[in-house]
Every structure is written in C-alpha cells, then in structure tokens.
Amino acid sequence: QGQLVESGGGSVQAGGSLRLSCAASGFRGSMYSMTMAWFRQVPGKEREGVAVIYSGSDRYADSVKGRFTISQDIAKNTVYLQMNSLKPEDTAIYYCASGWLLRRTLNPQEFDHWGQGTQVTVSS
Questions:
Q1: pLDDT one digit per residue (tens) for the chain, 124 residues
Q2: DSSP secondary structure letter of residue 29
C-alpha cells in the first residue's frame, strides 16, 4: 500500500519562499509513470489543484503560474513544490496526491493516494 508523506510547510512573510517535499513509498512501479500533484485547501472551501507532473511534463493553476514549480527526484521517490513570491492568499493546508492516471490532471477526485497535509501560512 503506497504512502505519501509531506514536509516543509511553515510560516513565511509575503514575498518569501518555501519548498514542500512529498516522499512516496510502497508503490509498485516508477514515480515517473505516476501522476503526482499538489493540492491545497482552506477551511470551508473546496480542495484546489495547484500543480501536477506526469512523465516529466507539468501543469499549474493560473493562480500560481510563474511563482510555483513542481519537480521530482525519481531516485529519491520525492516530489517537490518550490513556492516563490508567496502571497497571503497562498495560505492553506497543502496536500500531495498520486495516481496511475496516465495524464496530467488537477481534478482531486481522480487521485487515490493522499498525504496527511502540511500547513503553509503567509503573513502580510
């Protein structure tokens, strides 16, 4: 049974940077063949897709394009989310998700494995 564990959240001032990590374990097959994504959620709102990567190709939500970068280290089975120029509206719990989806998608309903989440707080 696969497991995803996020780390790297914290508090930062607006304009600052954070890097989130998501370590995958227990999955059969290469992470390169999995769709890996980052989502975020604020209490009372729906979970929002932030960035996704599949077979080396990435895609971003318009709200983070140009500021966030998703990457992966196949040897370490780890996916990263580099977040620059952070804004207060980026404050949320960030989740890592995976699935054997054979494409890039930011629809949370298509993912079957989720991490526990990590809090990101951006102050103005």
A1: 899 999 999 999 999 999 999 999 999 888 889 999 999 999 999 999 999 999 999 999 999 999 999 999 999 999 999 999 999 999 999 999 999 999 999 999 999 999 999 999 999 9
A2: S
d(CA 11, CA 29): 35
Q: Is 40 helix (H, G, I), strand (E, B) or coil?
A: strand
Q: Can you tell me the distance from the alpha carbon of 109 to that of 124, in angstroms, rounded to the nearest whole number?
A: 32
| CB of 96 closer than 8 Å to CB of 22 | yes
DSSP 54-108: ETTEEEE-TTTTTTEEEEEEGGGTEEEEEE-S--GGG-EEEEEEEE--SS----G
The residue with tokens 């998700």 is 97
